[in-house]
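example protein:
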Amino acid sequence: MAHRVSDIAAALGARFEGQGDLLVSGAAEPASATKDQLAMAMDPKYAEGLPQGQAQAAVVWEGADWRSLGLKAAIFTARPRLAMSGLTGVFDPGPGIEAEIHPSAVIHPSAEIGEGAAIGAFVMIAKDVRIGARARIASHASIAQDAAIGDDALIHSGVRIGTRVTIGDRFIAQPNAVVGGDGFSFVTEGESRVEAARETLGNPGDAKNQAWLRTHSVGAVTIGDDVEIGANSSVDRGTVRDTMIGRGTKIDSLVQVGHNVVIGQDCLLCAQGGVAGSTRIGDRTVLGGQVGVADNISVGADVVAGAGTVVLSNVPDGRVLMGSPAVRMDQHITMYKAQRRLPRLMDQFAELQKAVKLLMDKEQSRGS
């Protein structure tokens, strides 16, 4: 679908100059943009590609001389990433789920399906499920008994929603996400080596032949409004109380959220991260890629953990972390610089050892 430059600018809350009635049907990098595409030239270094493409309109930086760039229209933005968010929303065609209930979908008679919901092929909806208005559910998804999903949800192919899971409005689940699987919780009849290792800090004694016994998950998962869960991510149900994810939180692909975890509002959990059971994470906290958080600890609000950080103990509000184990980011950088100097320091130390040994040998020879 084509949009006028003036309409796009209005949608972004930005100003434009030039031919506002020029139509564009998509966005592209400057060097590959066609005549009907809006070039993303939001920095001078990207504008260098404009002569290689055919774009007639572009999103440019404040103060850009768009006429000298050969454009017929320009949209000006002071915050490029925010503009990208709005533009992708304008041009995103969506997942292509037809506005109907596919005849191959299996829906229990007791399920409540909201007005305007679209349900794709081979979807399974169990007993007493509630689906909100205008929800879109792609093929091969399954919603288990007593689950409830709010309005305007988008559930992609292969998603699994477990029993008694409660989800708010505008939920997005990317392909093959699993919400409401059993938590990973097992116990032995006597004290396990893991428990003994924790108590003794690494001296658990002799191994005992004990089987692991399942602790069943009788809790569920409660998710607030405007939450997104990435492809192949998993949120486990609680053991007794619900695992909880607050409003506006976004979870990337390949993330594991353990049983009983409580995640606050507007958090970001990036790819390949994991939060172990019964941990609490405060509002607006950001965990970078491959961040691991240990069980039964508390991470405060407004915390930022850089990629690869391993959080093993409680974290106060507002702390910025990096490293394994996690320390303040500035402290980690100091430690990293010192670590990189270690080979040189060791060489210097070896030279000092040699010098000291020579001096000692001379003193001994004098004494004799």
The helical segments are 5-12, 44-47, 80-91, 193-200, 329-367. Residues 185-216 form one domain.
